[in-house]
Design a protein that fits this description.
With 63 residues, this protein is an all-alpha fold. It has helices spanning 16-28, 34-41, 45-55. The chain has one domain (13-63): Orthogonal Bundle (Arc Repressor Mutant, subunit A), CATH 1.10.10.
């Protein structure tokens, strides 16, 4: 791929199963204490918000 000038980019931090778990926990938590949620999943708050925005269809996740 690199020879053609195409790059694959960075792999997603969380698997689709972990993303689903993240979304469920955020919803169950009433959208509160997202910083702790991000710590539990080992991601930054900004990455958490990127996943949440992607769920709402606002922007694409770019890890």
């Amino acid at each position: 791929m690199k020879g053609r000038g195409a790059y694959a980019g960075r792999k997603p931090t969380l698997s689709t199963e972990r993303i689903a778990e993240l979304m469920a926990r955020d919803k169950a938590n009433g959208h509160k204490n997202r910083a702790a949620l991000a710590r539990d999943f080992g991601i930054s708050r900004e990455t958490l918000y990127q996943y949440l925005r992607a769920r709402e269809g606002i922007v694409e996740v770019s890890p």
